[in-house]
User: What shape does this take?
Amino acid sequence: AQSVSQHNHHVILSEAASLELGCNYSYGGTVNLFWYVQYPGQHLQLLLKYFSGDPLVKGIKGFEAEFIKSKFSFNLRKPSVQWSDTAEYFCASSSGGFKTIFGAGTRLFVKA
Amino acid sequence: DVKVTQSSRYLVKRTGEKVFLECVQDMDHENMFWYRQDPGLGLRLIYFSYDVKMKEKGDIPEGYSVSREKKERFSLILESASTNQTSMYLCASSSGTESSGNTIYFGEGSWLTVV
Assistant: This one.
């Protein structure tokens, strides 16, 4: 069955530190991959997605993610985090059908 | 902008009550979903619908049912609420087309507490 694993449940960083959140998916066929973000008190929103083409995907607010097919990974990165990046981040995959599978989420706390 | 609206942000219900959570989307999306979000478990799919009157079970359908009588509206029903159904419920929709890449748009969520 399709599954998504996020490596860290909680991450605490200082401002200006670099961020990398790990995500691995299990499906071996064609996939769409997503990172969603939920800021405190707000609804989930799309951060970025990989659909096809360039495996390095750039999203909003300076985030990027790299799709590495051989490693079944789609890690999220940001070179320098800000206090406003404090949020919960969800990796998700869709195999092209209707169903999207989400990881357990990673809570990021950025110290000002 | 896509808007997914959930009728109630916060509800408190008693064990055994029948609970209705309503969701409306305004982008003519074919697909609609109900998830529950619990700490450490992420989002788990309860039910989804890919067309009017069509529904499919997700990963955790037990204790829930759904209704989709109109394309824009997708209701989640707890026939007899139990305390283990205390959670945040998220409604979502997607167009399901290749060009959209199955991007899902979420509502703000409904916090349900069953006492």
